[in-house]
Batch of 2 targets.
Target 1
Amino acid sequence: MRILISGGGIAGLTLAYWLHRYGHTPVVVERAPHGRLGGYGIDFFGTGYDVAARMGIADRLAAHQLPTESIRYVDGAGRVAARLDRRLLEKVIRGPYLALMHTTLEEALGDAVHDKADIRYGRSITAIEQSPGGVGVTFTDGDFESFDLVLGADGVHSQTRELAFGPEGDFAHHLGYAMACYPVSDTYGLGPHRIHHSEPGRQTILYPSDVPGQLIALFLHRTQDRRPPPRAQRRTALRGAFADASPLTAQLLDAAPEEGLFMDTLTQITMPSWHTGRIALTGDACSAMTLTSAQGASMAMAGGYLLAQALHRHDDHRAAFLAYQNRLRPAVQQRQQRARAFARSLVPATRPGIAAQHLISRLVLRDLFTGLLRRGYGDTTSILDRT
Ligand SMILES: Cc1cc2nc3c(=O)[nH]c(=O)nc-3n(C[C@H](O)[C@H](O)[C@H](O)COP(=O)(O)OP(=O)(O)OC[C@H]3O[C@@H](n4cnc5c(N)ncnc54)[C@H](O)[C@@H]3O)c2cc1C
């Protein structure tokens, strides 16, 4: 089948790879121009790692890991109040754990698929029209083409979802936070460690990027706003949200770029159905979990893989879409529920709350509580076949 994928991110590229492997002809439209830089770090393990291994890219990813020996929770004076060592993290996860730049994973997927799919950068869809025999698609440049299926892998603010299922507000669940991140020079002597620093209602995270001498600063704060401010207002909005912050945060905010500040709200997507007619969704487009799950990229790869596999196993696309959804959705729902619970206690609203959080972390982040930690954060369900 000739299949259009909207979105050349983690889910879309994984999907294109496996569709090609099963004999289909994938066409990918990606809104961004080719060769994006920068971005943010992700924890990568579990199902996503298993799919990466089946694609033969796990060794390449392992070679590009970010240096992460521990996660340190520091107080206002920079003292370590609690720490999670990589050794314990790997024990909790019960398998390989990689800290990666999001772009590292996208690049590895892009290289794995570049000769297997027609990938068109700087392009999007503007209209979709279904008929019994196919789907007609109009693109931003005015071109019109027909496909057998259209698969939306265009992220949490999916245009495919908007066009085929309805407005984002029908499916979005705001977790009450916004995040922002950007690269800064490493003048902090951070070494191979990630630091988390909480203040009432706000958190600053700092970790090494894949560029020597460069760190990524990530900011999380509580907000009732459901969308980020316009690009031109983001730096001011971030500084406003972190007014009177600790010296470390204030110093990082001074380095905020005027342009290119990545900002979004933490929004989960839940939908009664991931498919309609000849159109289906995968990745964040139908199942965004937010960064508090630390498994969005992993499940995006699971989604791409399982959707292609279902289309391979079922002659009828409707049966395939249903099988894919039934297979993946319970695992997604479990992770979304855990991410919501985690978000509630992520950033305490008061200083005594933060002190209590440090105390609990000091007690719990130990081998003795491996099982408890695994139930909270691990990839506990087996979603893939053994093959
Ligand atoms: C700060 C941060 C930290 C995170 N940490 C982790 C973590 O530790 N572990 C983890 O597993 N996950 C993490 N995640 C989540 C993870 O990045 C996402 O769940 C994952 O990227 C989802 O993949 P996707 O392919 O569905 O969507 P995306 O990666 O968002 O890809 C969507 C693609 O579609 C493109 N696109 C969008 N609109 C259109 C359009 N109209 N037309 C064409 N193309 C379009 C976009 O340019 C993009 O390339 C984090 C996310 C953030 C923001």
Target 2
Amino acid sequence: SIGEVLTCLKAGFPAERIMYTGVNVSNAELEALVKTGCRINVDSQSELERLAKIKTDMPISFRITPGVASGHSSKDMTGGKGAKFGIPYDKVIETYARAKELGFDVKGIHAHTGSGGLTTEPFSEVVDVLCGLVNRIKDETGIKLEFLDFGGGIGVPYKPQDPECDLDDLAFEICDTIKDETDIRTVALEPGRYIVCDSTILLTRVHDVKDAGVKKYVGVDAGFNTLIRPAMYDSYHYVALANKFNKACTAKYDVVGPICESGDYIAHERVLPDPEEGDIVAVYCAGAYGFSMSSPYNSRPRCAEVLVNEGKAELIREPEEIEDLWRHQIVPERLR
Ligand SMILES: Cc1ncc(COP(=O)(O)O)c(C=O)c1O
């Protein structure tokens, strides 16, 4: 989003090294992006025509729909045939030709198949598709592309028994294919989850322990307002009692939050060492799609963030207060 681009600029990244990929992008957002000087990776024919009216001197590229989908959940697969993302495969050549006609400097091709899959096959498949298109674009439109970007999506092991992606093998295979089959010498990838996921542990306090007969519950103060992945994707996060690491586990519990929906859970059926009020549950791998997907649902302010470095903890985001939730609300005069 433009918000992400502005955050990158604030963090000191030069505009020309930022590539924006959006979907269903508004004219206002396109205008703001052009002002920043970042690169735009165009998602649709409509976006191309609208960008042409604004004009940018920066090189552009296109996100295409490769017909290859991957991801940890069907909600996170973005590259399959008919997806809402990218230029549909059978419209790719005409779109590059149109961009040339409009006077754009088109430098690249991009695809992002989805997020969090643990196998490398989709990357090999998508690179094959992109290489084929690079050659067809050259032959059929005369555009010699300079870079190929196969997106993000590298998965991480959330469960202790999950395998790690073999990135060395993947890199060799992909680079060989690209070198052998095309003139492209610049390859880009966009790993998000892979970089930040295991950097972060969510700490949440136990306030309630309940034996409901058929089930035992550990009630904590983080629900899907704080970490939505379990409720939204049925995602697994490893949990442990941070203050009882070496204690023997006693029974199975569901770790559940303070939100008014039965879908509000952090972990199902986990063996834990005699949880009690006041204990702290550590929820692992909360660094990707964690805080950024959190919300103030049920009027529960968002949590603080703390950076730990060599044993020293520094507050890097203040916890929200209830007043923060009211800040943008307006009560019309007639209702006061
Ligand atoms: C275009 C694009 N690139 C990269 C990413 C990062 O994906 P991941 O965190 O799975 O690596 C995303 C995530 O939505 C994306 O939409």
